[in-house]
Amino acid sequence: MERELSEHTDRDRYREQTRPRAQAVPDPTAAEAGGGGAQAQFLRLLLRDAPAVEYERPLVRARAAGGGAEELADLEEAKVLALRVRTVLSDRRRRESELSALFETANDLAGMRDLDQVLRAIVDRARNLLGTDTAYLTLRDTAVEDGDTVMRVTSGSVSARFQQLRLGPSEGLGGLVAETALPYVTANYFADSRFEHTDTIDAGVLDEGLVAILGVPLQLNGRVIGVLFAANRRERPFSHAEVALLGSLATHASIAIDSANLLEKTRAALEELNEVNQRLTDHSRAVERAADAHDRLTDLVLRGGGIEEVEAAVSAVLGGAVTVYDASRHAERLAPELAQAAGASRSSGRAVRSGSGWVAAAVAGGEPLGAVVLEGVDLGAADQRILERAAMVIALLLVMRRSASEAENRVRGDLLDAVLDAPGRDPDTLRRRAERLGADLDAEHAVVVAEAPGAHPGRLRSAAMHLAETSGGLAGARAGTTVLVLPGPRPAEAGRRAAGALAAAVNTAVTAGVSGPTSGLADYAARFSEARRCLRTLVALGRSGEVAAPEDLGFFGVLLGGDRDVAGFVDSVLGPLLDYDRRRETALVETLRAYFAHGGSMSRAKDALHVHVNTVAQRLERVGRLIGPDWHEPGRALEIQLALRLHALLRGGLAEAEEAERGGP
Predict the structure, then answer these.
(1) Inter-helix orientation angle 524-540/655-663, to 10°
(2) How far apart are CA 140 and CA 160, in angstroms?
(3) What is the pTM for the complete model shown?
(4) 90-112 pLDDT, tens digit each
């Protein structure tokens, strides 16, 4: 009993020393020494929560007053009982205070949402409740599987080294608590051998100046998630009640940490859900835009819309400026970097970024038809698909346009053949067919016959058809030449314009003969024959790459114009000589041409022919016997020289033109 009383007395002294001093009050000992029995005196002491030392006074006064043994025994028994009651009441008050503090802590922790805020509140409250110099908390490192705990938050710490400690299993007091899931207390850390000391941990504790340490586990669902510590910088025994108090705080802390973690996970899940929802919303909008673009493009195709309308529709959906480049629409303006991007798009089948824009190739059956260029806006994946779909629609329109153009070109070619071969068979039908193609056969037209040796036939034909389509004329191919019938009263001007357009398309020189203007359906065949003879004359004269009408050829034009029979004229003048040369393989015509070319000098003619002068004389004598001795007379000589020039033209291609004219295409 005395030992228990001594414990109570020491504890009361400690509490009295640490309790804030109240204002001075009158000494109640006089009143307590008054009337009433021994029990009443001790009850008065309990009532005013007197210090334990004052419970000796009634016994001291009784001894001083000479009280008997029985009275002293009663007072001693009453004193012991009163001290016991005082201890119970003090423990209850302390417990009530601790419970109140724990409830307050739980309420504060329940209102916190941030994990760092919760941890800070835990260590601050632990330090205040136990009245220690420091408090700190370590948590399991979830990034590793070795069970280490790391310092997470401190209160009252002054050492940076201590604040960065990591405790392995069984290392230091904290490692032992984390491994065993039991509370441990040491009054002198460096003198305690129950746990493993390490240089790193000891250096941190020494740097912080800690001596007495209490650590309790933070447990959640049977698993230790960390350790809560309270520590002093001097030796201090921690009572069982303090261990229990810190343990209760650790329990609340574990629940608060779990709640904060759950809230953090919930917050992260909500953020992820919001992000997913935003992505779904964006995707839904992209799908709606794609569906809208698909509907617009489909409607355009079904309505027979053109490329310009597709450009406008794609620009309205995606924003920015849309331009379609193809063979017939400013393809030459496609910049090198755009051309490179279009090639990459053809290879990948996807839209390709180029500078500040995007390029999607229009391809059909592996054939590049053009490119769709979008500038001034950035595209997401869904919008890129819209641009690629627009490129597919452009390719479809280009194929359809090309097919329609090819069909129309065939119609124009067939109509041209009918106009040149049989204009009188059904003139009304020819006029109606021409009207459907935008041509008026009764109006004045120029007939152009052109050729460009070595040029790509397809490009030459396409260029001629495009020229006829845009000008309201006809185009076709006959006997290896390109034939154009173009409206207008000035044939020479029309011929030069046509030859220039064809030359630009095939990148080579074009030779063209022109005739006209026509004066009705029946006149087209004659103008065609005349234009073809002009073409052959230009070739025979070595004037390839030029354009000429009959009036541009001088007297050759007079002879070649209309229905002149050039071959018949040549045969009537030089026929016997030509026949003799063919049968005997001689060179009478050639000798006669050299003779006239050198001013009637046999000596100069023999140099050109590389024969003896006597050979020239013998040949000219034979010429006189075949066509008459007057062949060198001025009038007859002029006729022979003209026939020789025309014969040279016939050998240069005019004969084939004449034969084709008589035999058809």
Answers:
(1) 160
(2) 20
(3) 0.40
(4) 666 666 665 565 556 656 655 55
